[in-house]
Amino acid sequence: MSDEFKTELLALLPRLRRYALARTGSIHSADDLLQATCERAWKCRDQLMPGTRMDSWMFKIMTNLHIDEIRAVSTRGIDAGPDALEQVPDNRWQRRIEGKLVLGEVAQVMLQLPEGMRDVLALVSIEGLSYREAAAVLDVPMGTVMSRLSRARTELTNRLKLNQTMMDWAAE
Questions:
Q1: Domains (ranges, CATH) in the chain?
Q2: Which of 86, 153, 85, 92 is nearest to 118 (CA)?
């Protein structure tokens, strides 16, 4: 069980880190949350029920740890600078810079969304969880996931369009 668990856990690390970054908005806080999640999962690995998807179980642990942290400590500032972005796998510098700018804008706008919308957007649209799995991770009804996701996508699109319009006006 331990070797199989360790292999699955290692394979999930990139996805868990992305979700932690979406939840916290800071690389340092995301890494702390990721480490705490892995420690908790390792300590409780015998509680993973057969047939349960490990990714959903890990996202649930991370969500609960982050909620506990928010309750215990005041919210930290948000760091959505260039370091918060993943490397864009492209050898051409212009495309890489443009990609980082777009990802940076999306990350910035995403962090402005209410936490519930941001979490659903990260779990479903980025991590690929089903509505049912996201509902289980967040401990909300599936209908809530669906409505939050719809509102989050609409809000994200509207804010990105507004940002583009403002940039166009500034350039004129």
A1: 1-78 (1.10.1740.10), 91-172 (1.10.10.10)
A2: 153
Tens of pLDDT, residue by residue over 118-139, are 999 889 988 889 999 999 999 9
Distance CA 86, CA 68 (A): 27
**pTM for the whole thing?**
0.57
Query: Coil, strand, or helix at residue 49?
Result: coil
**Token digits of residue 63:** 């969500």
Residue 110 burial (10 A CB sphere; 0-12, 13-18, 19+): buried
Rounded to 5°, the CA angle 104-27-64 comes to 110
Look at the block and give the residue holding tokens 């799995």. Answer: 133
pLDDT in tens, 14-26: 999 999 988 888 8
Q: What is the pLDDT of residues 8-66, one digit of tens each?
A: 999 999 999 999 988 888 888 899 999 999 999 999 988 888 888 899 999 999 998 98
- Scanning the chain, the segments in alpha helix (DSSP H) are 2-24, 27-43, 54-72, 93-112, 115-120, 131-138, 142-171
